[in-house]
Write a structure and sequence with these properties.
This protein has 64 residues and is mostly helical. The chain has helices at 9-20, 25-32, 36-60.
Length: 64
Amino acid sequence: MTLDAMPNPRYAEAVNLLVLRGYEAKEVAELWHTSVPNVYNIRHRAVNQFRECYLSSAKRVRIG
């Protein structure tokens, strides 16, 4: 599964910047012109959405 498969592009960008690339929440807040607490909320929702997408794609592709 790739980030492109996520329904919300903003959440995909959050996972990319905060989780994969290691940006600080303050850096992303400045980039997005929003508050740091809002970035934390978006990250929380984004990780949950990524998990749901990953698990649903794993169910479709069974290993073994």
